[in-house]
Automatic annotation (TrEMBL):
Gene3D superfamilies: alpha/beta hydrolase (3.40.50.1820). Residues 14-239 form the AB hydrolase-1 domain. The keyword Hydrolase applies. Transmembrane segments: none annotated. It holds the Pfam family Abhydrolase_6. This is Alpha/beta hydrolase. The keyword Hydrolase applies. Keywords: Hydrolase. One of its GO terms (molecular function) is hydrolase activity.
Length: 256
């Protein structure tokens, strides 16, 4: 299935996979910095987000992401994933390790992770608000939880608009296909990996980052003392240099 996407710049490819609180617009602060540094930047809307509708039949998200790259003539790419987009990035990197040159995971989710009491309570509250028809309340709940103290009002408004659109797209779907689940072996991932967590995020995401940093063969974990769950939006002035340094370092490793 084709995913809504855009591409900018030229050079080594970088694929951006958004958080499930947002859509591909969350990367607006990163695209100019990446293209100016000499990269081709591809960003897509995952199924049920942004301009990509909810599939009515079963779908394989990672395969569709890999197929998008193939359709654009991109054999290999660095992948940057935020939260739920990080989970998809891990799927792609484990199933097609030869296609991923570097892997930056920002407060990534992980399939099979057992939710903390805090995360479970959030999910229950969100479900209750949606069932009660209070979509605005559910939207505000997400904005308040997922953005750290450094996020300004413009950023909060942008996340609010994206999250509200997510609910609109998903609630409008008459039928919803089931995602295909493929058994993964994350130790097949060969790309250098950067695991980022935020000190103001829920504990789940630091635990996942620590776990993955031990599991993946060429990985390191960086915790940002200023960050919540969406550091690329909260402080792009601090996040962009970190990502660019990692990409340059990884590019040198892949050529060495």
């Amino acid at each position: 299935m084709t995913l809504a996407h855009d591409s900018a710049g030229s050079g080594p490819a970088v694929l951006l996979l958004h958080s499930t609180v947002c859509d591909r617009r969350m990367w607006d602060p990163q695209v100019p910095a990446l293209t100016a540094a000499g990269y081709q930047v591809v960003r897509c809307d995952l199924h049920g987000y942004g301009d990509s509708p909810v599939p009515s039949t079963s779908f394989d998200e990672a395969a569709d992401v890999a197929g998008l790259l193939t359709g654009l003539g991109i054999a290999r790419a660095a992948v940057i994933g935020s939260s739920g987009g990080g989970r998809v990035a891990l799927d792609v990197a484990a199933r097609w390790p030869e296609r991923v040159t570097a892997l930056a995971l920002l407060c990534t989710a992980l399939r099979g992770h057992e939710a903390s009491p805090e995360l479970s309570a959030f999910s229950d509250r969100e479900d209750a608000l949606i069932e009660a028809g209070d979509v605005d309340g559910a939207t505000d709940l997400n904005v308040d939880l997922w953005l750290g103290p450094e996020a300004d009002e413009d950023t909060r408004d942008a996340v609010r608009a994206m999250q509200r659109h997510v609910f609109a797209v998903q609630l409008a779907a008459e039928e919803e296909g089931e995602p295909v689940r493929v058994e993964l072996d994350l130790t097949r991932i060969t790309a250098p990996a950067l695991l980022v967590s935020g000190a103001h995020d829920l504990p789940d995401f630091r635990e996942i980052a620590v776990h993955l940093a031990k599991l993946l063969p060429h990985a390191r974990h960086t915790e940002l003392d200023w960050a919540g769950h969406l550091p690329s939006l909260e402080r792009p002035d601090l996040m962009n240099p970190l990502l660019l340094d990692f990409l340059r370092e990884s590019q040198g490793q892949s050529q060495g």
